[in-house]
Amino acid sequence: MTEDHRELRRVVADFAAREVGPHAARWDAEHRIPAAVLTALGDLGVFALGGPEEFGGIGDFTSLCIAIEELGRHDQSLGITVEAAVGLGINPVATFGTRDQQERWLPDLMAGRALAAFGLTEPEAGSDAAATRTRADLVDGRWVLNGSKQFITNSGHELTRLVTVTARTGVRDDGRPEVSTILVPAGTPGLTVEPAYAKLGWHASDTHPVTLVDVSVPAENLLGERGRGFAQFLAVLDDGRVAIAALALGCLRACRDLAAGYARERTSFGAPIGSRQGIAFQVADLDAWCRAAHLLVYSAAAMKDAAAHGERVPADAYARAAAVAKLQVTEWAVAATRVATQVFGGYGFMEEYPVARLYRDAKVLEIGEGTSEVQRMVLARGLGLLQR
């Protein structure tokens, strides 16, 4: 960590303690994150972390992971809102967009004045993204899109201005579908953001199904090269996995700190419960997981930053590092919420205590941005196992 990284951590941690922690339970109950807190994060520079300097970008990928971790300590819903806004909203436009596309969208997105969503998942196309059924036909110089997407984060927030959609645009020479990525501005006729999901956790995070019926956008809304939509998604996916691991690390730290504090204060049979090995050893495990998780997240982030500075980092090495971080840290986070809830006993089952919210929020960490099974598949293939 550089001094800039340490200063960023101090700034975001202070903001989260003042402006997020005291309100997280209310946002969870109201199923919303106010636009004001997102624009405040924009003023702080959080949405610009790791972005192109010419559009206001600051810091690096490690910086983004730090911010997500610190926000996730207080509110996992806000953490995933930021992670998706940057990793799935800004990153594809910054990486693959034309100059005109970047100039149109990046200034507001990176300033926190707008949000963008990424429409990939469908009822029959999740981890198997190549099974995309949404179609985009080029008619008289315009893309006409028809289909549906599900589980789309930041798709219906009051700040949402753009949904990037993967769609079939033809058939490749080998007979497989040609998948491309197309920018669809919010409010385009035929683009319908369906009612929000009733989710187990991440209540304040904005998540909707999206339907497209004869949605027409200009041909120049194609993002990147035609037929490279799936490859583009894979290119940004590894970064998303590391960022989700950073969010899980925030969850881990919250569980450790809450459990340790409660174990020191709560008395039973005349002594703090933390004086008993049965409790103390469980909390010690949480501390060990936090320390190991920190190394996994930030060693992977450092590989990303090293490559950005011209160092030779094999893509498969980074992919494996991202998969390990995503797999291990998210599974530790889920286990940590169970331990912390158990330490709190009956109080841990009450919504007035943050461990209950963390318990609900954690499970999806093992699912989003590639399930644990997908991460194991990546690692197994790196060992020469499994048939493709």
Automatic annotation (TrEMBL):
Cofactor dependence: FAD
One MF annotation (Gene Ontology) recorded for this entry: acyl-CoA dehydrogenase activity
Designated name of the protein: Acyl-CoA dehydrogenase
Domain Acyl-CoA oxidase/dehydrogenase middle: residue ranges: 117-215
Keyword Oxidoreductase annotated: yes
Family, per entry: Belongs to the acyl-CoA dehydrogenase family.
Span of domain Acyl-CoA dehydrogenase/oxidase N-terminal: 2-112
Domain Acyl-CoA dehydrogenase/oxidase C-terminal: start-end pairs: 227-383
Pfam family for this entry, one: Acyl-CoA_dh_1
InterPro entries xrefs: Acyl-CoA_DH_CS, Acyl-CoA_Oxase/DH_mid-dom, Acyl-CoA_Oxase/DH_mid-dom_sf, AcylCo_DH-like_C, AcylCo_DH/oxidase_C, AcylCoA_DH/ox_N, AcylCoA_DH/ox_N_sf, AcylCoA_DH/oxidase_NM_dom_sf
Keywords associated with the record: FAD, Flavoprotein, Oxidoreductase
